Amino acid sequence: MKVGIENAAIELEPGQWLRLKGAAGVRIVCRSGTVWVTQEGVLRDDFLRSREALTLCSRGVTLVQAEGRAMISIAARPRINAATATLSALPVAG
User: Fold this and answer.
1) How far apart are CA 32 and CA 53, in angstroms?
2) Domains (ranges, CATH) in the chain?
3) Are 65 and 30 spatial neighbours (Cβ–Cβ below 8 Å)?
4) pLDDT, tens only, 56-87
């Protein structure tokens, strides 16, 4: 599912991930749980816990994955070319 991300609150199930593209300047706030954030071209990954936030710097692809159940909010700064997001679930190994 593709969604616009002006200001969004998203609940992520365990293993579910959010793919952002062109999201430099977007701020991700972890409202509950823990999420893993990896940005294309950035050498470090980030883990956000409840009440922690991160402003993205990559113009490439960013993945946000839930470590257990998590709630995040996304605030995009106003700009002409809005970032896009794709919400997906990883296949469950069985």
Assistant:
1) 11
2) 2-89 (2.60.120.10)
3) no
4) 999 999 999 999 999 999 987 665 455 556 55
Closest to 38 measured CA to CA, from 14, 16, 19: 19
Nearest C-alpha neighbor of 22 from the set 35, 49, 41, 7: 41
Residues with Cβ within 8 Å of 75's Cβ and at least 6 positions away in sequence, in order, are 7, 26, 27, 29
Q: 39: which 2 tokens?
A: 């940005």
Nearest to 55 by CA among 42, 70, 71: 42
Verdict on whether the full-model pTM lies above 0.85: no
Contact 72, 9 (CB under 8 A): yes
CA separation for the pair 38, 8 (Å, rounded) = 19
pLDDT digits (tens, 9 = 90+) for 43-64: 999 999 999 999 999 999 999 9
